[in-house]
Structure formats: structure tokens, C-alpha cells
Design goal:
Length: 866
């Protein structure tokens, strides 16, 4: 069905402009003396609001009405209160210029409706707004129970400071009586005593998150809070330091050092938002046993502390570092460049003759965690990566040997990355039989930790990433205050426990001077144009494109990567050079990304998105302004090919680095660092390589040439990075095995020309299809990559079962290259286009998204075939 033609297009207005527009219109309408005309005008006005704006619009406008009494006379509220009752999700009153009688405005607005605001589940009152609203605690709880019956999140940061602990206690008692099902409560800065803690711990049984930052708590008070069996997160920034000093006597808060390292993990402490594992320190255990807290309850609780921005924790032997902001980082750019190049030169000189390392390889598989809402047929990304990793990483932290898998965080809070516990290799072809089994085992490790309505999917992109309510729990972006400043991507979707991810997001935006701009051409269907004009990103994006504005749209995708260890530096360079031309071919073969922010797009791969998502170039570097403060006009993003720094090139040449390698390194170093740790500024350039790796690791390209690290067990490596993740472990293991076998074939047949007979003639270059490249062509007498690999295998001593496995993998690659088997991108596109809910408008609805992911989940489990 076509979109409703009666809806006025507001394509040239962003959310904030729509609010201002409606706000001013309401003021003009309020001056009319004809009540019926007013009502009709309001109905028409609200019909102009695009559905995609509606919920956020209602929240913003409602808050604006409450903030400014002069918006409308109170008689007018009953005309629009019904609209707010249906759509208001969150009422947020921050520190604003409120009139002293604004409470009567709120009261008038709420009482004008015959029904409560049933859809509003979050009430946020910051700082001393309650005092300005003239709300006493009893009146607040009465308002809460009367007009907001379904509140599950309540943030009252700073009950009026003049309230003594008895008044706060009475407020909590009233809250328990009127709203016993609150799940999240923030009473930071309030006068909390032991009795109040006891009531919270024993009566708010649905409470799972409690924030009491800057509250003076006693050990008895904390013990009372912990009586709540459902409590999983307790934030007590600063106020609990004395308690920790008492129970962990080896803590040195002044120097921010934990003195003693111990074993079995039971807690996560967060030091300035950097999570670290805390273990069964005897005094800590004694503290909990004394208060009769069972072990399984202790394991659920997350205590959050603030003790500074840097230090060292021996609980998990991991540094806590301050990361510089972009301004500070920029001042260190020359220092990082100078010492980074020196570190490379020193390392290369020491390691260039290293030889004889075993041929090893390993894969990196990234996964989405998905929450299904079967009753409403919706799917969300599930923000529980930190919770999962706290369990998955236990064996490695304990120092267990012979690990089957290693787990690390990724950019997004809904992603996890798994690798084999030890690299494959050792000269045995039989290792190829282990890859798929290990991938299945990794997937099952995570699956065992998930709820019944959750799943782990190896998909490149979540189709509705960045749409309204795409996260679980439901979190909305705050473009005015968050790091990304995104209209679509909340900071909470960034993995919270590693400071690097948020720092990269902030520093890229600050260095660029504006938000990143990701614009993908939309897939044009019959009604696409009308829908796109009402999209929130329309005003900032290119015409006919889907606009995204945050790093998470690229870094929040998943991929498949393979790393190889070479025998020596020359072999690593051969692999790098020979695999580089195959990157776009493998990218096309594994294409799996035809969606972006709830739309079908005219792309099948993630590369344009991820390239733009990390584009930190200034306007000068992009050629939009003449060069003044910057050195280069850089035609492409960090995720692409780039020019080189001639001064650094000359320095490398002067230190006997050959021309080709000097150009490779110097083109990496035209980039400034975008993340610098405070304690990593000054290094021993003969022993450390952090400055070099700082630049190297933030040039995200399809291939990466990796020098040996400080660990003497690891040699020269090459990382192959273009492949998109596939639905099934069979597909992913097929691609890994193909790429690894291709490296073996390359090293066996280094030189290959299609006109070998005439050695004096120049090499012939022909345009071939992917089918011809993989499966060969008789026209040019090119056997194809698959035939070359099979020829290599025929000269190896391969066991029968391993050969059978490899033949199945190669047969899959043959069929995918010939288009007999469609790519995941084509499968997704056809599924969406054929779905009965599809309206020929390029939109991926909630129902389409849900059905698609259910289908992929069944394919992953082998219940269905593509």
C-alpha cells in the first residue's frame, strides 16, 4: 500500500525543528476563541508528524510544555493529553528554567485526561528540579501512582537537599506502597540511612539496578541493600570507599593500586567505568559471609567504584589507563609518529632475519546477541556482551591451559568475538578437520549462557540497527549530550567496559570537526522516495541515500578474519602482496549486507559503511578547505588505500628499509593517532612497539602486515580482513579453509602468468568473472583458483576424512562463485522483497526483521536450508 497521502511531508525538518514548529503553532492556536476550531487544528497538526518521529517527538514536546508554563493556557491541555497518554514513553525533566508554579501546569495537564499515562515507563527528574516543581516526596509518589502506573525506571537524582533522612525514608516508604514494581532506581546524592537501605533491600522486590552515587553508606546499609535477591547492579561511586578500605585492607586508594592478586573470580569492579575482575579476597568473602549473603547472590552483584582514572590492578594483572581526549592526542601526534617509526626500524632490524616459524593460522568470528520478543514478533540486539564475557573469559584469566576458545570484547555491547584457544597449524593438513567443530563449540559456549528467547547469530549487520527501539533493554540516543551525538545510536550500545571504544568514537568525531557521515544509496522501489523524505536522517544526508551518523553503524557490524603466521618476513610479504588483489573478490563472494538502518540499500557489502564510520579526516584533509593546519589532502578514509608521508619514507630509506616496505609503512603514518593512553606516552623504543601499533591498528584496511610483538613465540603475520561473516559454521569454515589453502598454493606457485610460453612477452591481463577466477576458463587457459588448490592438495599426504572435508568446502566455494548458490546478501534481499509485510517502500518493518532473523536462526541450527 502507498503511504498516506494526507500526511504532510516534513522532510526538511529534523526532530528538534519539528518540536519548535509544533510548539509555536500551538501557541498561535491557543489565541483562538473558538474551542472547536482549536481542537480540529490540533488534530490536523498532529497528523503532520511522521510516524518515525512520533515517540521521540512526544517526549521532547511534552517536556517542553512542562518546562514552560507559558506555552499554552491550561484549558488547552485536554485536547492533546490523549495523544500523550498513548505515545509518551519517558518524561525527563532536567535542570532547566522552570517557573515556580510549574507543578500546577503538570498537575493540570495530567488531570485533564480521563486515563493514566499508561505507556510511560520512565520518569527522570534531575538535580533539584523537584524543588522547583514544588513537589514534596509524598506528592511525587502520589503523582507517580496516579498518573504513571507502569513506571519501571525512576531516576530522582538529588531529592531536594533540604530533605533530612527521615523525609527521604518516608518518600521511600510511599514509593514502595505505590510503585513496588520499579526495576531501576537512582537516588544519587540523597540522604540515605541504614533504615532506608533496609526498606529498599526488602520491599522493592523487582529492583535489579540501584544507583546511590555520592550517598554516604555504611557497611550495615550495604548489607541491607544486598538482601534484595534480584539486585544485579549497585552503583556507589565514591561513597563506598571507606567500606572497601575496611573489608579489603590491601587497597591503596590514594595511589590507586590494589596490592594483592588472587584467584577465583566472583565480582566485577568498575574503576572509572573500566571493569576489572575482583576475586575472593579473604576479607571480601568474610564481609559477605558475615552478612549471610550466599555465594550465588554475591556473584550476581556488580559493585561500581570511582577511585581515579589510572592505576594498576593486580586482581587481573591489567592496567587501568587514562585515555587522552582528541585535543590532547593531537598534541602528541608528532611524538607518536617519531617514536612509532623508530620502534618499527628497531624491531625490523632485530627481526628481519628471524626464520623458521611454523606455519600457523587462526580465525576470528564475531557474533550478534539477539533478543526475540515472540509475543510481539520483534527482535532486538541484546546489550549483554559484558555479562557474557565475564563468564567466557574466566578460564583464560585463571590461567587454564589448552583452552578451546578465547573471547574478547568488540566495539558494540551486543557483540562478542571468539577465536580458537590455540592457533591451527604445525604442518598437518588434518588441522582443517578441527575448524568447523571449533566454531560450533564456540557458538554453543555462548548459547549455553543465553535465555530461551535469546540467540547468537553470525550476521554481518542487524537490519534495523539504529532504528527506534533496536536495543534490549530499550535505550534511546541523546544527541545533545552523548559521545557520538548521534540521532540514532545511543552510547549505551558501545561496549562499556573497554575505554578504547568510546574514546575512538569521541576522538574521531572531534578530530573530524563533526559527526561521521555515512550515506548509502537506497534500494529504489515504487514508494521509496516518499518514505525516505520523512526519515529523520533526510535533512543531513544525501538525496536518495540512507544517512547514518555514528561509528557504531560500521564498527557495530560483524565480520570474519583470518591471520597467518609466515616462516619469515619475505614469506609474509609475498602473502600480503598476493592476497591483496583477492580482497575485493572475497568481499563480493561473501557479501551479506544489503540493509542499513531499517532500509534495503543498493549495496551488498559492508565496506562503504565501515569506511565512512571511521573517517576522521578534517575538512582540509577531505579537500573541502585549503590546507592550513593539516599536512595532506587524503582522498580516502582510514578503511581504504592512502598516500604516503615522504619525510617518514626518507627516514625509513635512510635506515635501510627497502622501497616497497618503506612506502607501505609511510602511507600508514600520514594518519594521526586517535587514541593515546597516558601511561604509554613515554616508552623504550628498543623494547616496546605501542606507538607503532597505535598507528597500525587504527588503519583498518583489507590486509594488515604485522610485525612480531614482544612475545618471542609469535612471528611475522598477515591478517586477511575483507570477508563478511556467514550464517553457518560450515560457510565460515569453508571460507577460512579456502583462504588458508590459497596461501599454501601461493607459496608453492609464486609466479603465474597465463602466457608462460612466451617469456619475453608482457603479462596478459584479462577481465574475468568471479566464476572464471575461481573455477577457470578454457578461453584463456586459466585453470582457476580451485583447480590450483586441488593441484596443491594432490601433492600432499592428506588423510581420506580430511580430504572429504576439504572437498565439501571447495565444492561450496565453487557453487557460490558460479552463482549456483546465492550470497547471504541476495538471500536477505529476496526474503525482504517477498515478505507479505513489505510495502514496496524499501522499509524493513519490525515484523520483516523478526521473521528474517528467525529464519536465519533456523538456518544456523540446520533446521532450514537456504
Amino acid at each position: 500500500m502507498p503511504p498516506n497521502k494526507s500526511v504532510l511531508s516534513l522532510s526538511d525538518l529534523s526532530l528538534q525543528w519539528i518540536v519548535i514548529f509544533v510548539h509555536e503553532t500551538l501557541q498561535r492556536l491557543s489565541k483562538s476563541n473558538n474551542a472547536e476550531n482549536q481542537k480540529n487544528a490540533v488534530d490536523d497538526l498532529f497528523q503532520t508528524i511522521p510516524c518515525s518521529f512520533y515517540s521521540n517527538f512526544v517526549d521532547v514536546l511534552f517536556t517542553k510544555i512542562i518546562r514552560e508554563k507559558s506555552v499554552l493556557p491550561c484549558k488547552y491541555y485536554n485536547y492533546i493529553s490523549g495523544i500523550f497518554n498513548r505515545h509518551l514513553r519517558e518524561l525527563s525533566l532536567s535542570d532547566c528554567n522552570l517557573f515556580q508554579d510549574s507543578s500546577s501546569v503538570l498537575e493540570e495537564f495530567l488531570t485533564s485526561s480521563n486515563q493514566p499515562v499508561s505507556n510511560c515507563k520512565s520518569l527522570k527528574i534531575y538535580k533539584n528540579v523537584m524543588a522547583l516543581l514544588d513537589f514534596d516526596p509524598l506528592k511525587l509518589t502520589h503523582t507517580l501512582s496516579s498518573y504513571f502506573p507502569n513506571i519501571s525506571v525512576m531516576i530522582v537524582q538529588g531529592l531536594p537537599s533540604e530533605l533530612d533522612r527521615w523525609e527521604v525514608l518516608n518518600f521511600i516508604k510511599k514509593l514502595v506502597a505505590n510503585s513496588p514494581f520499579i526495576q531501576c532506581l537512582d537516588l544519587s546524592g540523597s540522604n540515605i540511612d541504614d533504615k532506608t537501605c533496609e526498606i529498599i533491600g526488602s520491599s522493592l522486590n523487582a529492583l535489579h539496578t540501584l544507583q546511590l552515587n555520592n550517598c554516604l553508606l555504611t557497611s550495615a546499609g550495604v548489607s541491607n541493600l544486598l538482601k534484595n535477591k534480584n539486585l544485579v547492579r549497585l552503583d556507589c561511586l565514591r561513597g563506598i570507599e571507606n567500606l572497601v578500605r575496611m573489608v579489603i585492607t590491601s587497597s591503596d586508594f590514594k595511589n590507586q593500586v590494589i596490592q594483592r592478586g588472587i584467584y577465583d573470580i566472583t565480582k566485577i569492579l568498575i574503576f572509572s567505568n573500566i571493569p576489572l575482575h575482583i576475586v575472593n579476597h579473604p576479607n571480601y568473602v568474610k564481609f559477605f559471609k558475615k552478612r549471610k549473603t550466599e555465594a550465588h547472590d554475591r556473584n550476581k552483584i556488580v559493585l561500581k567504584f570511582a577511585i581515579g582514572t589510572s592505576g594498576y590492578c593486580k586482581f587481573c594483572y591489567r592496567r587501568i589507563l587514562k585515555i587522552f581526549c582528541e585535543y590532547e592526542t593531537k598534541k602528541l601526534a608528532d611524538h607518536v609518529h617519531e617514536h612509532g617509526i623508530t620502534q618499527f626500524i628497531n624491531s625490523y632490524e632485530k627481526l628481519k632475519h628471524r626464520h623458521g616459524d611454523d606455519l600457523k593460522w587462526g580465525d576470528e568470528v564475531e557474533y550478534f546477541i539477539i533478543k526475540f520478543k515472540h509475543s510481539s514478533q520483534e527482535a532486538r540486539v541484546c546489550l549483554k556482551a559484558m555479562e557474557l564475557l565475564s563468564i567466557l573469559q574466566k578460564p583464560k584469566i585463571r590461567g587454564d591451559k589448552d583452552l578451546n576458545s578465547i573471547w574478547v570484547p568488540e566495539y558494540a555491547a551486543y557483540m562478542v568475538e571468539g577465536t580458537p584457544g590455540v592457533p591451527y597449524g604445525g604442518g598437518s593438513i588434518s588441522q582443517f578437520n578441527r575448524i568447523e567443530a571449533n566454531m560450533k563449540m564456540r557458538r554453543n559456549e555462548v548459547r549455553a549462557l543465553l535465555e530461551d528467547d535469546e540467540s547468537i547469530l553470525s550476521i554481518t549487520n542487524f537490519p534495523r540497527l539504529g532504528c527506534s527501539k533496536f536495543t534490549y533493554p530499550e535505550i534511546f540516543p541523546l544527541p545533545e549530550s552523548e559521545i557520538t551525538r548521534s540521532l540514532f545510536w545511543p552510547d549505551a550500545a558501545i561496549y562499556p567496559s573497554h575505554p578504547r571504544f568510546k574514546t575512538l568514537s569521541r576522538n574521531i568525531r572531534e578530530r573530524r570537526g563533526e559527526k561521521v557521515a555515512i550515506d548509502l544509496p537506497i534500494f529504489k522501489d515504487k514508494y521509496t522516495e516518499e518514505v525516505l523524505k520523512n526519515d529523520p536522517g533526510y535533512i543531513d544526508g544525501k538525496e536518495g541515500h540512507v544517512h547514518c551518523d555514528a561509528m557504531g553503524f560500521g564498527m557495530g557490524m560483524c565480520c570474519l578474519q583470518v591471520t597467518f603466521q609466515a616462516t619469515n618476513v619475505d614469506e609474509a610479504r609475498i602473502l600480503y602482496d598476493q592476497l591483496a588483489p583477492l580482497c575485493p573478490i572475497l568481499l563480493a563472494l561473501t557479501a551479506a549486507t544489503p540493509t542499513c538502518r531499517g532500509y534495503l540499500v543498493d549495496r551488498d557489502c559492508r565496506w562503504d559503511t565501515i569506511s565512512a564510520s571511521v573517517d576522521c579526516r578534517t575538512q582540509e584533509e577531505r579537500g573541502l578547505l585549503p590546507l592550513s593546519t593539516d599536512k595532506f589532502v587524503i582522498p580516502k578514509s582510514r578503511y581504504d588505500s592512502i598516500i604516503y608521508d615522504k619525510d617518514i619514507y626518507e627516514k625509513l630509506i635512510d635506515n635501510q628499509i627497502d622501497t616497497l616496505l618503506a612506502k607501505h609503512i609511510s602511507h600508514l603514518f600520514i594518519r594521526d593517532p586517535i587514541s593515546v593512553f597516558s601511561e604509554k606516552v613515554h616508552q623504550d623504543d628498543n623494547k616496546e612497539t605501542d606507538h607503532f601499533e597505535n598507528i597500525q591498528s587504527t588503519n583498518w584496511q583489507t590486509m594488515r602486515f604485522k610485525i612480531p610483538p614482544v612475545d618471542p613465540k609469535i612471528g611475522w603475520r598477515v591478517e586477511f580482513r575483507p570477508c563478511e561473516i556467514q550464517f553457518t559454521d560450515f560457510e565460515n569454515s569453508s571460507i577460512v579453509c579456502f583462504v588458508v589453502l590459497l596461501t599454501r598454493t601461493i607459496l608453492t606457485k609464486v609466479y603465474f602468468r597465463i602466457n608462460i610460453a612466451d617469456s619475453d612477452a608482457p603479462p596478459e591481463i584479462e577481465e574475468l568473472t568471479i566464476h572464471e577466477i575461481f573455477n577457470g576458463t578454457s578461453e584463456f587457459e586459466f585453470p582457476g583458483l580451485i583447480s590450483l588448490i586441488k593441484s596443491y592438495l594432490s601433492n600432499q599426504n592428506v588423510e581420506t576424512d580430511t580430504m572429504c572435508t576439504l572437498c565439501n568446502y571447495l565444492h561450496f566455494i565453487e557453487r557460490r562463485a558460479s552463482t549456483e548458490l546465492i550470497t547471504n546478501a541476495k538471500f536477505i534481499r529476496e526474503f525482504i522483497l517477498d515478505h507479505p509485510d513489505y510495502k514496496q517502500d524499501s522499509v524493513i518493518s519490525e515484523r520483516i526483521n523478526y521473521d528474517l532473523l528467525i529464519e536465519i536462526d533456523k538456518i544456523t541450527d540446520g533446521v532450514l536450508k537456504k
